[in-house]
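>> received
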Amino acid sequence: MAQRVRRIFYNGDKKTHAGHPYGATRSRREQEGKWQSIRVGRQPTGTPMAVLAGRLPRSISVVAGRSGCVARDRFCLGVSSARVGVFGFEGSHARRWSCCKSQEGGTRRRGGGMGERSHERVVGCIGEEKLLDWETMGMGSPLRLILAMALGAAVSVTIPTRLGAQPTPGAAAASSSMASNSGALAAPALSRAVGEAVRSVASEGGGYRVVGAPLETDTPAPQASALVQRVVSLVAGALGPTSRGCESELSLENAMLRTNGFPALVYVRTQIASGEVRVTVDRYPMARNIWDKARGGVPGPSAHGFGRARLDAEVRSFLAPIPLVAQTPRKVPMPAAEVVALACGDWGEDGAIALYMMTRRTILQGRIRQGRIVTLKEKAWNDLSSIAPSPWREPLATMVVGVGGLDVGLTDRAMSVRLDPNFSVVGSYEGMPLSGPSGVACAQRRVGSLAAELSPCMTGESSAPAAPFAFDAYAFERIVDAKGATTDVWAVRNPTDGSVVLRDDRAREHRLLHVGAQLAIADVDLDGEPELLASKNVLNPQLDALVLRTWRANGRVEKRLEVPIVDGIQALTVCPPDGPHRRNMLVATHKELWVL
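>> returned
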């Protein structure tokens, strides 16, 4: 079958179809740069497709629907059989869509439940009942929509949320004697938890009714209903375009009574416990008629799924805020002397947070139990690497805890190594391992500092952007804000003057003077703004202190806390959330481990 093509040309608040009696002259207006061209057609197989060409308006949304229309500040186009995928999930939408002008008082064209867009917000809908705000669902900016066609044809569109938004240059990455947890590089918590939960529940049929149970939480939640609806929206979106979400929170019995006309009920339970968001999804087949109900009674679930993730600022925005105030530290005796690096994380995401500690002789994994550190695994450096030809007078150590392994480096040793969960050697390499946007990268050793250039640690791995100068301390973290958008933040210290440069992937930069060589970046109070933790730039250990500063969205760096550490700071790190309180900060001294 020959391909049928129709062109729609966009000019302000007008639209014309090529060849239409009232259509204007296309070529002249296109040459004047006033038209935006959209191509709509069919493949020879009859599969609908959509192709976007030319510049798009300042504020647009791309959705699925057999008919397309163009209004002043929005463009709506799509195919009824298409699905909208957002960061790997398929966003829910109705079978028919409409689009409208975003100006106040503008006309509206209705078509069966299209979500609306105004100014810089993208809003879709779940069926005809529930609106989804993709900008506040943790999808981040720029918004990435994937139009997945029925037989596999796809168009990918990346849309900036501001007029004239330009790609931001990669922020500089650096190295540190600190350890970092690359588990923070994953997607926002709700996306991860929902993705795991629906994996075993989704089927090719679709068309489910999705209902949420009341929130179960160990933390005060002023916006509990909004959190449940957010999870229901994400689950319905992941289950396909014909699934519909329910606005009300219902018990399982009431949900079954209100699921007439759907082949199955998907019941979603959301729980906040022990610093995690946990999502449980059960699919219940619905009886076809009254006779099936009479014979079968209440059916059991035909599919079950579960997902969990550590809390981030997006989830925390629905809960009571955490005050960031000084607290009396817990002090735990050190199991070994000369600690040079600390890390804390949920390696393998099995739900258990472990402490990783490096000394000049050993590497150990442990947990704090009853006021002491219980060692779970331990490995001697002599079993991992030989002595370096020229050890530094003051050792520098790096440690990266990630899903792929535990990467450790020490200037006392000739090689850095990667360990598996059993502390067996996966591989060894030159350079010092550092956490970055793409995983682990390596910096080569220089005299008293690490080189600014970062290269892959092992064959087949990625590198990272170079730092602006050689450095002796580094920190990196991927921060999730209250809307679910992620920002990569770096801190790098110049050993010549003790200054620290803060950078992020949005091209912001701030310089701090007279900062110590122990650094960490984390969202300690889970409000979506990064905190820089640092020691003081002093020679006398009795004058040392842990200083916490918040890098505000307006670019200002605000000092929030200063805790004196009279024994001097040897290493520090921040643990993932493990309860309703703020994240724990760990500080290693010569004698003790401080838990703040």
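>> Confidence is low (pLDDT under 50) at residues 1-177.
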